[in-house]
Amino acid sequence: MAILETKTLSKAFGALTAVDEVSLGIDAGTLHSIIGPNGAGKTTLFNLLTGTYRPSSGRIVFDGRDITGTPAHRVAHLGLARSFQRTNVFPAFSLLDNVWVAAFACGTSWKGLAWRRTDRYPEVRARALAALADVGLAEKAGEAVREISHGEPAAGLSPEETKKLVALVRALKGRYTIVLIEHKMDIIMSVSDRISVMHFGRLIAQGTPAEIQRDPEVRRAYLGGVAA
Amino acid sequence: MKKQTVLLLAAVVVLPLVLRPAIASEIWIFAILGLGLNLLLGYTGLLSFGQATFFGSAAYVAGWLLKHYGINVFLALGTGVFVGAASAAAVGYLCVQRSGLYFIMLTFALNQLFYFVAYQWTSVTGGEDGMPGIPRPAFLGIDFGDPLAYYVFVSALFLVSLWIMKRIVESPLGRILQAIRENEVRAEAVGYNVARFKLAAFVIGGAFSGLAGVLYAMLFGIVPLEAIGFVTSGNVVFATLIGGSGSLYGPVIGSFVFIWLSESVSTLWARWPLLLGVAFVIVVLFLRGGVVEAWSRLWQSSKQKL
């Protein structure tokens, strides 16, 4: 069953239609990757799904509920969270505080918002620590994030780190429904249940990794139309 | 008690012994104004160049009620806090729609708007002559006309304000505002309505500025037109940056440096703002955390030597 669906979703920036009538269904509990050449509209689609942009037309349905035009901060509370393409943190905060802010946001109550001290929220702290433990960073909770996210954020990960990331994403599969945008094909092919391919804002193919690898139109999109 | 608390209480006691009580009072009043600005500037990362809007509006409204209706001191303070918060809500609502330079220019432009209303509306504000004759009504037999009694009153309110601000910045709200300062897009993505939180920072900061405005009006018995002018807005930004924005005590130290320099050095040397200019350049180039950072660096290096 599709937990997240788009219906003829479009987004135009002036004359450029970055996302063009995309109808996409993401099944609950799966890892669904969206791939496509640079400028295919993947990031724009992502920004539409998470409420960062308002679509020009079309609808987005999440968990049976129309969320078209819902602002990003509210989408987050519905259970649809995003991470970012580049390393994206609250730089001056410790690792724990980074996660604490997110854990507090989706907490059940904001009681004491402007008065209770932040260290008087044991349940928020516990959830933040649990989230850190999930990714093997619990023992570094007190450290500044600057010391952990070393190197250039955009430079990407080493092969060693990539392996760890793949293992992490695999472990999350099933517990969460994951929509993944990634450029490294080997990762995509090894972790995805389904793949959607975008080209010039349109959806040109959908299927399992094996089906996508055979698809002639996908090959044309990636290799510029000269492939046999 | 913590070191800061002891130092602060000592300062409250010692200050009127070494300075005239009126100047000592002005230091704490300006510090309250700085606390309000710093919630925006230091914690939320919003450079409000219009804090005098809230300060001046509160001073005029409460001053007018004190003068013509003889309201009591605490009602005047309440009025000031309310007017400060309400004007900040109105200004903030417009300003948080934009960011960066446009945000700063909006706070400045709206400040100018309030300034020219005060300038033109001479029947109420006295225009360029200011609004004189604001009393300091006695309360429960305490004559606030006595400069020292008024100093005690002001410093007590300052300590309460500082305590409230400390609670706010150490609460989830304080952390969320800092998260917005650090990364607005991420704060939105994890589920905070950034515009509304910025507005909250405005309203709280405005309430503090309003309190300072009333205390200022009662201190000098007049609301000068400059109280709502952009120079006042600039001065408080200046003082806060010199003291150290982003730290709770920064604006307090900044206020002390600023008022003390302007009151003591100005009598010796008319070009004293030059000194401030030099201090400001040093802060911007070498000490982004202001006096607070300078102090902690000294503290660190002295500990290493021992």
- List unreliable stretches of 5+ residues of chain A: 150-155
Strand order of the largest sheet of chain A: 2-1-4-5
Q: What number of domains of chain B?
A: 1
Helix/strand-derived category of chain B reads: mainly alpha
Proportion of strand residues of chain A:
15-25%
Question: How does the helix and strand content of chain A classify structurally?
Answer: alpha/beta
Count of helical regions of chain B: 14
Number of domains of chain A: 2
Describe this structure in words.
The complex is a heterodimer of chains A (228) and B (306). Chain A is α/β, with parallel strands linked by helices. Chain A is 34% helix and 23% strand. Chain A has nine helices and eight strands. A four-stranded antiparallel sheet of chain A has the order 2-1-4-5, covered by helices on one side. The radius of gyration of chain A is 19 Å and the shape is globular. Chain A starts with a strand and ends in a 5-residue tail after the last helix. With 306 residues, chain B is mainly alpha-helical. The longest helix of chain B is centred in the last third of the chain and has 27 residues, at 194-220. In chain B, α3 runs antiparallel to α4, α4 runs antiparallel to α10 and α8 crosses α10. The model of chain B has no long low-confidence stretch (mean pLDDT 92). Chain B has one domain (3-227). A two-stranded antiparallel ribbon of chain B has the order 1-2. Chain B has 14 helices and two strands. Chain A binds chain B through residues 50, 52, 71-74, 76-77, 81-82, 84, 88-93, 97, 100-102, 104-106, 110, 112-118, 121, and chain B through 167-168, 170-176, 178-179, 182-183, 185-194, 200, 204.
Question: Any chance you could write out the topology, listing elements then pairs?
Answer:
The complex is a heterodimer of chains A (228) and B (306).
Chain A: E1 2-13, E2 16-27, E3 31-35, H1 42-49, E4 57-62, E5 65-66, H2 72-78, H3 95-105, H4 122-134, H5 145-148, H6 159-172, E6 178-181, H7 185-191, E7 194-199, E8 202-207, H8 209-214, H9 216-223
Parallel strand pairs in A: 3-6, 3-7
Antiparallel strand pairs in A: 1-2, 1-4, 4-5, 7-8
Chain B: H1 3-18, H2 21-44, H3 51-69, H4 73-95, H5 101-120, H6 122-125, E1 131-132, H7 147-169, H8 172-182, H9 184-189, H10 194-220, E2 222-223, H11 230-243, H12 250-268, H13 273-286, H14 290-305
Antiparallel strand pairs in B: 1-2
Helix pairs in contact in B: 2-7, 2-8, 2-10, 2-11, 2-12, 3-4, 3-5, 3-10, 4-5, 4-10, 8-10, 11-12
